[in-house]
Amino acid sequence: MGELTDKLDAAGNKIAGKAKELYGDATDNPELEAEGKAQQLKGTGQDVKGSVKGALGDKV
């Protein structure tokens, strides 16, 4: 179950981060754009964590 939870959290962070990045770009707000990129990076990390959990049988 940990793998699925991590992957769902990752997807949410990637989507929300992309939305922030695009909105920041559209409104000429570099802080929001950077926040969006950071949130996407967090989502990528969660995705990797979920993949590792899946490979090791959720024992991580």
Description of the molecule:
Residues 37-60 are annotated as: Disordered. This is CsbD-like protein. Belongs to the UPF0337 (CsbD) family. Residues 6-56 form the CsbD-like domain. It comes from Sphingomonas dokdonensis. Helix 1 (2-26) runs antiparallel to helix 2 (30-56). The chain has one domain (3-58). It is elongated. The chain has helices at 2-26, 30-56. It starts with a helix and ends with a helix. Helices cover 87% and strands 0% of the residues. The longest helix has 27 residues, at 30-56. With 60 residues, it is an all-alpha fold. The chain is built from 2 helices and no strands. The mean pLDDT is 92.
Structure characteristics:
60 residues; mainly alpha; CsbD-like protein; YjbJ_sf; CsbD
What's the structural blueprint in terms of helices and strands?
Elements: H1 2-26, H2 30-56
Helix pairs in contact: 1-2
